[in-house]
Amino acid sequence: MRKDAVVRAAGIGILAVAVLGCTNYGLRLQELAPDCYVVYGEGGNSGVFFSDTAVLIVDTKMKQGAERLRRWVRSKAPHQRIYIINTHIHRDHSAGNHLYDDAVIMAGNYGEKFWNAVAAREDMPNRWLDDSLTWHWKREEILIYNVGQAHTYEDVVVYLRQRKILFAGDIVLNGYHPFLDEQVGASIAGYQRVLAELLQKFPLRWVVPGHGKAGSTELITSMQAYFKDMVEATMSPEQEMVARERYYGFSSLPINKAGFEQTLNFIRKSETLR
Ligand SMILES: [Zn+2]
Ligand SMILES: [Zn+2]
Q1: How remote is the CA of residue 72 from the centroid of ligand 2, in Å?
Q2: Could you read off the pLDDT of 154-185 as tens digits, one per residue?
Q3: Ligand number with the minimum distance to the CA of 43
Q4: Residue 112 C-alpha to ligand 1 middle, in angstroms?
């Protein structure tokens, strides 16, 4: 590379940092509505909602992403009480829990023994949620809803009623094959039941998936179509080809645990068990 090209490339690098902003600790953020953000990736997507006296965090990421999320939240809300909801037990959504002292940390009722077997003791929630709970914060009604078994045994979604925003955890993904994890209770029938319920129950402006970009209700209908197509793909080689092409560009994360083949195998296996 010629020297002026190197200088130009370095200049673009500096510009990119300036545009993204150092104050966000390298996090990719999107403000969906006043005081309400999605913080993308580095583990699952997180939702953050600020009020004058409290902060709601939906999923705490993992590793450096978890640390950066905490620093960003504390820079914007140094003294507010923190309330954490884990949409589910997977570590990419819950492994930052231990970074928050004195926070209320809530998840579906997996129980301590199961939590310790799958996730880390240090990230254990301090409240289990059996069905649903509504909080009235200034100018917002927050519904925390245990939808039951779909991606795991105890999936929880969070809905902001005034802003019409749904944080769906890994029940909804955008451009990813789902991680169908037998150990934590993944169920195709459960997914289909919950996806239909979410569409029917909530007026939606934004749907925040567990992974991938936020969107509208079409993320839910696409997820329904995904399972329908994949079930059909197990029925004939022709339908399998169609599905393979349709979902060719989907990401397969975690590698070796999620992907086209993994979904097909999961469906085949659950059918023989039925
Ligand atoms: Zn995830
Ligand atoms: Zn997950």
Answers
A1: 24
A2: 999 999 999 999 999 999 999 999 999 999 99
A3: 1
A4: 21
**pLDDT tens digits for 64-112?**
999 999 999 999 999 999 999 999 999 999 999 999 999 999 999 999 9
Fold of 26-273: Metallo-beta-lactamase; Chain A (3.60.15)
pLDDT tens-digit series, residues 208-258: 999 999 999 999 999 999 999 999 999 999 999 999 999 999 999 888 899
Q: What is the pTM of this model?
A: 0.91
Tokens describing residue 255: 């590698």
Give the number of whichever ligand sits closest to the CA of residue 44. 1
Give distance in angstroms: CA of 178 to centre of ligand 1.
Answer: 8
Q: Which ligand is nearest to the CA of 152?
A: 2
Distance from Cα 1 to the centre of ligand 2, integer Å:
43
Burial class (CB in 10 A: 0-12, 13-18, 19+), 33: middle
Pair of tokens at residue 1 = 């590379």
Domain ranges of the chain: 26-273
CB 176 within 8 A of CB 251: yes
